[in-house]
Amino acid sequence: MLLSPKKIDPLDAEAAGEELAEVVSAAEEQGLFRLERYLKQDGATQDFLAAAFNLSSFLHDCARRYPDILDRLFEQSIEHRLADLLKEIAARGRGENTSETSLMSALRMLKLEAQFLIALADLSGEADTATTVERSSDLADACINSTVDFLLLDAHRQEKLKLPNPENPGKGSGWIVLGMGKLGAHELNFSSDIDLILFFDPQAPSIADPFEASDLFVRLARRLVRILQDRTADGYVFRTDLRLRPDPGATPLAIPVEAALNYYEGRGQNWERAAMIKARPVAGDLQAGEAFLKELQPYVWRKYLDYAAIADVHSIKRQIHAHRGHGEIAVNGHNVKLGRGGIREIEFFVQTQQLIAGGRFPELRGKATVPMLSQLSHRGWITPEACDALTRQYWFLRKVENAIQMVADEQTHVLPDDDEGLERIARMTGFAERDKFASALRECLQDVESHYAALFETAPELSAGVGNLVFTGDVDDPDTLETLSRLGFKRPSDICRVIRTWHFGRYRATQSAEARERLTELTPALLEAFGKTSKADKALMRFDQFLAGLPAGIQLFSLLQSNPGLLRLLATIMSAAPRLAGIITRHPHVFDGLLDPAMLTELPDRAYLSGRLDAFIDSSAQYEEVLDRLRIFGAEQKFLIGVRLLAGTIDAARAGKAFSDLAGLTIGATLEAVEKEFAARHGAVKGGRVVILGMGKLGSRELTAGSDVDLILLYDHADDAEESDGDKPLAPSQYYTRMTQRLIAAVSAPTAEGVLYELDLRLRPSGNKGPVATHLDAFRKYQRNDAWTWEHMALTRARVVAGDDGLAAEMEAEVAAILKLPRKLAKVAAEASEMRALIEAEKPARDVWDIKLHPGGLIDLEFIAQVAALTGKIDSERRLTGTGATLAHLSSGFANQQTREELSAAWTLYVSLTQMIRLCLTGPFEKEESPPGLIELLLSATGLPDIDVLEAHLTETSARVREHFVQLLKAKS
Q: Which one of 107, 256, 376, 602 has the fewest beta carbons within 10 angstroms of its own beta carbon?
């Protein structure tokens, strides 16, 4: 016999021997003599089968009635026999002479044998629990598919359907069969029922009359349930539940796709969103099923998080726990699925995190529980310890659940009340003693419950221990004023007045009773967080302005209530960063991204941003929607990059690269949308290609949070192209000029979601006098023959950021060739010095904090780098566009090592200050007026003790840079 079983002990050794003897006798009555001979030679298998039959009445009865199942294991392993059974089940549904009666009988017999083998493999140790649930799911899939194929072919033969491919009945049939719950997740337990939802597409190729489709598929649904579920002399296949469909009390068994989509989008409940996480097409028109689920993605995986809904779910779960109490967990009679610390809590743990994060991270949209625990740990949503513990306990509980059901093939999740019954489960799960099993199970349940409680029961702690806070009536409460003063507020009476405004519902965000209730719960923690900031009163007033502009508040209050860390960060932003505070005010949804635990640890490089952008706009179809989504994405990611800089997880140089990569990606995506939209009306130009050349700080990857974007649009086309091939053809030059104008509007025009970027195209050939789109040949000719030195200096920072790959390579090569043209250092240096003097005369710096314009400031450093790049004074095998990198690679013949180090240090200082100032402020930095929180951030970024020392250091650095500028440029001109 192809079986190598592990040792398990029976409950009653004498009874076990008798039960095995009954099976052997039944085999001999059917002429099967191999079993007895083999068992006499293999004591281990004999002991295992005796114990298995003693522990499981299902296994004993099945083997006694059908000993040929065991006999076949002399010729095939369990694995191979199960594979053959699945093939036979599939073949039955497609047989030409199959009747409904014969199919019902065959499915019941084949399923019985498969289930016997699955249980035997589990108890023998041939299969672990993961394999057992996978085999059970495969068996259910096969039976459902066989039944659906039979029903579709039967309808085809009766000419009620016209199947496009009878060899593959489901394809193009329009009948969508979704497996839900554990079936959908491929995690079916041994004696589970199956949850299905049935949809149909009236416009499918197989349906001749869409008006009759509903009646047809409802009849097919009834037959499907009958074939699978009705008990006959041969038993049943699977208990089948269709109650997860939309509004089951008022809808038919099979629902049209469009009606289902309308329901989910308009009236779908939160529990239905959670249920749809595990939905999987299991039979019928699989392609249509996948399309349906893809259409449903925006409903399940929301781009913006429904914090109020999540808070409601958490609240319900806390009430359930409070109702149950937290005493000792009894093992006898415990429900391992629904009870405390049970399987459902692990599943709910995972699904809630998926609902929170899956809209932003597609890798968290999986159906199976354990792989999603791993992904949640990998992304930082749960700790590795929680992942390991919950994974281990999940499989232990699933093993116990299967054992409970394998006793008598009953759909129950409840452990026996009696000690003998518990002893049975202990033996089936590999424990020698009931007490050891009970101890292990109790430890498991408590472990699960502790992780579950940690996830859902933290919010009430937010408001603990702050002090007396009363904001009712019109008169200030003395104890409240004292509490506010102790918390750090200088004008407690004004703070009381502001908070009364909130609680009286005078803002739209606080008009609903539920919003005010959430805000009341949040207020103590909110005041504590703001009280710890510099100038707490001013920070809270900014928060008040934020609230006044919010259209609704319940989502934000729920989010902050369940995430104390975000509340502290919000207080920092309100105290130090008016620009970020303004972004939050205009776009409250930017907070969504802060829920990602990995946000502060992942570098926002181009690959990261590109992946997030693809996930964010993948379902967008309409041109205007794409533009709005790009604005939403851009605002959010600017905010998140800024938060990383604020938190110190990235430095200023990295922030500049991230801001620049974000601009390149979003403008590139806008270009793709514009090209597609423009081509729909005007067609395409033969051989037409477009690239965007990033200039200025975009090209050098030094953008700040407040930078506008310098770029040039370049195009090329076939020599013989006369006009585009659309309904409204245009000559190539007109085509690309108008398309560029469309691009400028798409990026810069304000919409409900704001502006993506302010664009500046003045660096194109001939500046504002030239066309907005430039042909490659015209660009080449202009740069080689007509461009001024300052234009070549600007070209040193040029970099292709979007567009056709082939043209991009040509442009990069062309720019490099132009920059390598022979030039005299003296001439270039003289013209650069003259230009710097002109800028200084026309735009004098306000003070030393005007870091760009101040003598010895950023412009001096940029000019030094650009002159060196133009005249070949760079030691680098590759072309450098970044100012910092260029300064670090100045050739020794141009600048000595000390000069390079001092220039690089100055650049680092300037960029650190500029990035932080531009992140936090919309106007100039004024030392006396700037938020104290910002000054603390500047000191932290530079490692200096106070603002006066920093100002002195900045003055000294700029003086030194100006000396180097004169030495390197003016002295050589």
A: 602
Q: Which two tokens stand for residue 156?
A: 């085809």
Q: Can you give the pLDDT at residue 943?
A: 85
Distances (CA, A) of 847 to 53, 851, 951, 957, 958: 91, 8, 10, 14, 11
Fold of 591-818: Beta Polymerase; domain 2 (3.30.460)
The CA radius of gyration of the chain, in Å to the nearest whole number, is 36
Reference 502, options 566, 546, 560, 461; nearest CA is 546
Q: Residue 646: exposed, middle, or buried by beta-carbon count in 10 A (0-12, 13-18, 19+)?
A: buried
Equal CATH topology for 463-576 and 825-970: yes
Name residue 689's beta-bridge partners: 716
Cα dist. 699→693, 712, 782, 917 in Å?
A: 8, 11, 20, 21
Give me the pLDDT at residue 310, please.
Answer: 58
463-576 maps to CATH 2.60.40: no
Rounded Cα–Cα distance for residues 276 and 264 (Å): 10
Please measure the distance between the N-terminal and C-terminal CA atoms of the chain and give it in whole angstroms: 95
- Alpha carbons 548 and 507: distance in angstroms, whole number: 6
The beta-strand segments (E) located in 468-550 are none
- Judging by beta carbons within 10 Å of its beta carbon (0-12, 13-18, 19+), is residue 143 exposed, middle or buried? buried
Interacting residues of 173 by C-beta distance below 8 A, sequence separation 6+: 152, 161, 163, 164, 204, 206, 284, 285
> What's the DSSP call for residue 967?
I
Which DSSP category does 931 fall into? -
CB 735 within 8 A of CB 686: no
Burial bucket for residue 70 (CB in 10 Å: 0-12, 13-18, 19+) = buried
Fold for the domain defined by 825-970: Four Helix Bundle (Hemerythrin (Met), subunit A) (1.20.120)
Which residues in the chain come in under a pLDDT of 70?
1, 303-328, 455-467, 472-474, 591, 595, 597, 618-621, 971-973
Q: Which residues contact 446 (CB under 8 A, 6 or more apart)?
A: 329, 341
**240-241 vs 194-200, strand pairing mode:** parallel
Distance in angstroms (rounded) separating the CA atoms of residues 299 and 355: 11
Residue 175, helix vs strand vs coil: strand
pLDDT tens-digit profile of 36-54? Answer: 999 888 999 999 999 999 9
Q: Which residues contact 19 (CB under 8 A, 6 or more apart)?
A: 50, 53, 54, 60
- Which residues lie below 8 Å from residue 110, measured CB to CB, with a gap of 6+? 85, 88, 89, 92
E strands, 502-594, in order: none
Residue type, position 651, single letter:
D
Tell which residue, 242, 250, 131, 158, has the closest CA to residue 194. Answer: 242
Q: Which of 912, 892, 897, 893 is nearest to 953 (CA)?
A: 912
Question: Torsion-angle region of residue 31: left (phi > 0), alpha (psi -120 to 50) or beta?
Answer: left
pTM for the predicted model, two decimal places = 0.75
> Which of 199, 202, 185 has its CA nearest to residue 254?
199
Half-sphere exposure of 640 (CA within 13 A, CB side): 28
Instruction: Tell me which architecture the domain covering 134-300 has in CATH.
Output: 2-Layer Sandwich (3.30)
* Cβ atoms < 10 Å from Cβ of 237: 27
Question: How many alpha carbons lie under 13 Å from residue 313 in its C-beta half-sphere?
Answer: 19
Which class for 721: exposed (0-12), middle (13-18), buried (19 or more C-beta within 10 A)? middle
pLDDT at 687: 96
CATH architecture of 307-457: Up-down Bundle (1.20)
Cβ atoms of 829 and 973 within 8 Å: the answer is: yes
Token pair of 136 as six digits: 């059970």
759-760/709-716 β-pairing = parallel
State pLDDT tens for residues 101-146: 999 999 999 999 999 999 999 999 999 999 999 999 999 999 999 9
